[in-house]
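2024-03-11 09:14:02 INFO queue: dequeued item Phosphotransferase, len=302
2024-03-11 09:14:02 INFO validating residues
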Amino acid sequence: MRILTGGASRSTWAFDAITGEGRRALILRIGPPDDVHAGMELEARVQAAAAAAGAPVPPILIADDSDAALGNPFLICEHIAGETIVRRIQRQLDEPGRERLVRRCAQALAAIHRAESNDPGLAQGDQLAVWRERLDAMEDTTATFEWAFRWLARHRPPSSPAVLVHGDYRMGNLIIDGSGSAPVLAAVLDWELVHVGEAYEDLAWFCIRAWRFGAPASRGAGGLGSIDSFLHAYEEASATDVDRAAFHWWLVLATLRWGVICRYQAQRHLSGQVRSVELATIGRRVCETEWDLLQLLDRGAS
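2024-03-11 09:14:37 INFO prediction written
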């Protein structure tokens, strides 16, 4: 077995199963339950619903919320060939390839949002209130964060229809196969934050600066293409209209969310809960999100 990632709550392993037909490449995700992440069985049900709606997901063999078999809840799915490291993906694509991939990312997201979202296990909540509460729980804030929260409260757009929300739809959680002009979005990964909410949440999260991985602002949608081209492709695939003012509001919230996450990761290190240079480095990025928020708030000033 080879460990692929070892997060705070769950780890991911690659392994080969030996059967009568030969070797079969599989992926194991395992970790203790908590109050933040979806259970393994819920993940499996939601991915099946997304697949039925046309989204690319890894076929799941088994998911179990019990710890009886392996000591923790787990999920096993097929291994999907491709690349997830964004800078490698960017280097392998030409301009037509990036344009093709940004359309495919929009189409896959539209499929997720079409999927059945009536599973009783899915949470639903006010995202602005959620991130306000999480920052308050740390008993720490910044002037820029507070300004952003006040702006968001004053300029909140009308609610849009509830859909299935992936919750972490971004480059890095997508498997891309192929290079040049013919990349393929092979699978959408990491469904542990899935919930019911507004489509704008996923659209905006894909477009925050952190997920460009150094690409210029002209490629604001995942470092692949323009945000406008991404939103147009989503509108075509979903047969809906994306209100640009509402999208801007959600982009501010998505950027603020990333800032709160950075501050939380720093707190885990500074408190001694998990001593980690990686967490400390992520915490150092709070100032980057403050700069991004100032830029966004200046554009949305009224």
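2024-03-11 09:14:37 INFO annotate: Residues 244-270 form the longest helix (27 residues).
2024-03-11 09:14:38 INFO item closed
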